[in-house]
Every structure is written in C-alpha cells, then in structure tokens.
Amino acid sequence: MAHQRSKLLFFCILSCYVIVITAKSYYEILQVPKGASDEQIKRAYRKLALKYHPDKNQGNEEANKRFAEINNAYEVLSDGEKRSIYDRYGEEGLKQHAASGGGRGGGMNIQDIFSSFFGGGPMEEEEKIAKGDDVTVELDVTLEDLYMGGSLKVWREKNVIKPAAGKRQCNCRNEVYHRQIGPGMFQQMTEQVCEQCPNVKYEREGYFITVDIEKGMQDGQEVVFYEDGEQKIDGEGGDLKFHIRTAPHDVFTREGNDLRTTVTITLVQALVGFEKTIKHLDDHLVDISSKGITKPKEVRKFKETIALPDDADGFQRREKNWN
C-alpha cells in the first residue's frame, strides 16, 4: 500500500512538472519582455531561429522542438490581432478565435514562416548589424534555488537611447561613381552619403530584471536577455548575460549532482555508533546513523527515501554523500 502511494505521488508530481513546462509563455520562448516592440520580436526571432534551425542541429530532437516553439510564438506575436487576443485571453482565447473563423485560418507552417522572414533557398546567415557591447554579470545563486528552482530579482542600470532636439547624420554609406577627366578617361570616386535623422541622446535608467533559475543549473551556465546589454545608436543592443555561480552555503557543498556536509560526533559516538537528523535544502529531514566504529574523516553515503521524480537537469542521484 505504501509503495502504491509512493508511485501515486511520483506521477502526481511529474504531471504538475509537465504542466509548468508547457505553460511557458510566447514571450518567454522568444526571450523578450511582454511590452517588446515589433522590431525586438523580429530580432529575437531571427537569432533564435538561426540558432535552432534543423540545418544547424541535425539529429537534435530538442533543437527541432525549440525551433517549432519559436516559430509558433513568432506567428502569434508578429500578428497584431493575434497578439492582442493572446495578451488578454492567452492560448485559450486564440483557440476560440480560430474556432469562430477569425484570423487567417490555418496559419502558416514552420517553413513558410522562416522563408517569409529570411527568404527562400538555403538557410542564410544572420545579417551583420551594428551591435552594442554584451554585458556579463556573475550571479551568485543559493544551493536552495539550484536544488528546487527559483527566481532572483536583479537591479539593472544602463544607458537608454532617448529622442533629443535637432537632426543628425545617420545610415551613412559609401557610394561609388565615375567622373570623366579626359577623352575616354574616367576616374572612380567614392563619396559618403548620409541621411538626416532625429537626434538622440543617452539617459541612465534602472529597473528590476527577474532571472529564472532552473533546477540543477551548473556553475558557468548562462541566462541570456537579448538586446538588454549596452545600447547602440542606429544598431541593436548587446546582450545581458548572467553567469550562474553557486553561493557558499553554511551546511552543504555541491560536487556535481551530490551534496556533501560535515557531521561532528563525540568520541563515544565514533566508537559505539550514532543517530542524527539533518535538515535538507528543501527542509525535509534526513535520518543518518551508524553502528560500530566511525573513523575520522570517513565518508559514508546514505540513501534518501523521498518519492520524487528524477530530473534530467537537476540533482539526479537519490544517494547523497555526507562527510
């Protein structure tokens, strides 16, 4: 009976986990804020579509799945009517809208979306656009958040481009022309031609960014916010990258997917045995014990018996090292 309850708990937790994964919003899939402009959405789509395109990820089923998600999200967010419905009513609203005959009916398939954005033929490389500097931040994350998942609010300050009085030269390019300097003789000339654009200036702004921490993230992994780095006039912003770094913990240290801690016992306990209880990172209690002699600095492994699903990206082992 207890075994059945354990299995029931396993499947219940697993079902909830799947629901959370599939509920990822279209904005999260494209890695843009909800108030992103059409241009931000296009740029984010271009980067992600090129990164996860099947031509660059042959045989990678996860990349193919991401590519489909990216195109589905872009189809909705690039359409003003669909995006408005999605913002107000979510995916269920889009389904009802389609069922009532609204929209274009049927939508576009993945290849149509990619081809309409990049053009036909073989996959093109990303066009070269002037880009601001990337900003990299070392982000200390607690073992609790790395074990259970969580989110951190980080204060961010950066230079933001704002309108200013006057005009300026912009979109400058070199144009080549030929000038006749004698009978049958021509000279090739190059002239820089610029447009007149509204003037701009940099202003310092600050705001909070929410960084989502996935279960089991390793040191050095990145969480990227596209175009949230240094801004570039007549170009696109660099990227803001958070490098995950495990913060020191009072009780545990992490080694791969194992947790280690030091337990102090008395001389009598070292000779005849001991029983102790340790609070885990999620506050559940772990009972450890030993019968007989325990040597100094001896490493022992104790199995946990909690009914939790193994997470491929998390702390996979049910056995934890206690030193």
From TrEMBL:
Keywords: Chaperone, Endoplasmic reticulum, Signal. Its main location: endoplasmic reticulum. One of its GO terms (cellular component) is endoplasmic reticulum. Residues 25-90 form the J domain. This is J domain-containing protein. One of its GO terms (biological process) is protein folding. The lineage of its organism: Eukaryota, Viridiplantae, Streptophyta, Embryophyta, Tracheophyta. InterPro entries: DnaJ-B11-like, DnaJ_C, DnaJ_domain, DnaJ_domain_CS, HSP40/DnaJ_pept-bd, J_dom_sf. The keyword Chaperone applies. It comes from Fraxinus pennsylvanica. One of its GO terms (molecular function) is unfolded protein binding. It is found in: Endoplasmic reticulum. Gene3D superfamilies: DnaJ domain, Urease metallochaperone UreE, N-terminal domain. Residues 1-23 form the signal peptide.
